[in-house]
Amino acid sequence: MKGVKVVGFGHYCPENIISNKDLENIVDTTDEWITKRTGIKERRISSGEGTVELAYKAAVAALKNSNCGSDDIDLIIVATTSPDKIMPSTACSIQGLLGCNKAVAFDISAACSGFVYSLIVASSLIKGTDKKRALVIGAEVLSRIVDWNDRGTCILFGDGAGAAVIELSNEEEGIVSTCFSSDGGLGEKSLVAGQLELNTPFAKEKISEKRYIEMKGAEVFKFAVSVLPDVVNDLLKKADERIENIKYIVPHQANLRIINEAARRLDIDKDKFYINVDKYGNTSAASIPIALSELFEKGLIKRGDKIIIAAFGGGLTWAGALIKF
Ligand code: UT7
């Protein structure tokens, strides 16, 4: 039986730490409000590094932790909503920097679900084509698309990158079950960013640029608390697995209240969820790979452990995977 296993992780976040107190000097907010409503205490914000640079540093760490060289990689997928450029793709820039000359490289846009989408696409390509080993990265400099005058959103987001190396395996471990879905109608109404200008000699009506994240927080919150337990239950069902056998659930790190509510709905202990939203805020596509990389760095995952990753976000999109190590 052909499976796909995760070989190693790496992550990199900017060194610049911005606390809730720092944000009190920028918008009308308080440390107390942010902590109570989101669980976030601080986030990393780029003071000059772009998405390619963050992604590159995470990729180098993942390759090192996987004992892989540039020539071992056949496929590079980067999930991002905040690329440095429209063209070339972030993945192609990473390919050039790493010298992964025999790889094919492209980006995936699925907001906060982007890393899980990319993992699923990479895993399918590994099973179905001649690509046998992939570098999958989630990387964001969200600070460039955050409206620093909007207290409803600017307190939530952070910058960072996480990466994984996955490869074809004949062993039992690996990506056991997956799910991914989207709802484009709901997405347009509740969470948008980065509208590009259309101002050509042929445009009947000019479309102006709307660069920043605009979110109906309460609507996205409602969506998130319902979809997170659904993803977990779907993955367990597909894998014929029980929640008791899952060591950690690694959710998209958007808001501690969303995670607590998901734990309540699933009727499980909150401790089963790995949480680092307090340190990084919401880093969108980077949040799950940063968390996975931290889990490994801390030695919290052993061979044979099973974990679930579960994401939700703009699009709207949601996705998950059950992985056995
Ligand atoms: O990764 C993408 C997915 N995104 C998410 O998962 C985000 C989901 N949504 C959320 O996490 C929450 O909706 C927020 C954290 C964004 C907002 O929390 P909330 O409990 O839904 O607050 P709210 O938007 O209903 O606002 C409550 C009050 C309002 O004041 P009034 O109208 O009651 O006087 C806001 O103006 O809190 C006010 N407020 C703030 N006050 C202090 C909003 N932002 C702030 C702030 N500091 N930063």
Could you explain how this protein is built, in words?
The protein has 325 residues and is an alpha/beta fold. The chain folds into two domains: 3-172, Peroxisomal Thiolase, Chain A, domain 1; 176-324, Peroxisomal Thiolase, Chain A, domain 1. 34% of the residues lie in helices and 24% in strands. The chain has helices spanning 20-24, 31-38, 51-65, 90-98, 114-128, 151-154, 184-190, 217-239, 256-266, 277-280, 287-297; strands at residues 3-12, 17-19, 42-44, 75-79, 104-108, 133-141, 159-169, 174-182, 191-192, 214-215, 248-251, 306-313, 317-324. Strands 1-7-6-4-5 form a five-stranded mixed β-sheet, with helices on both faces. A four-stranded mixed β-sheet has the order 8-13-12-11, with helices on both faces. Strand 4 (75-79), helix 4 (90-98) and strand 5 form a beta-alpha-beta unit. Helix 3 packs across helix 4 and helix 8 packs across helix 9. The chain is globular. It starts with a strand and ends with a strand. The model has no long low-confidence stretch (mean pLDDT 97). Bound molecules: oxa(dethia)-CoA. Oxa(dethia)-CoA is lined by residues 29, 33-34, 37-38, 112, 151-152, 155, 217-218, 220-221, 224, 254-255, 258, 282, 284, 313.
Record keyword descriptors for this entry.
325 residues; alpha/beta; Peroxisomal Thiolase, Chain A, domain 1; four-stranded mixed β-sheet; globular; binds oxa(dethia)-CoA
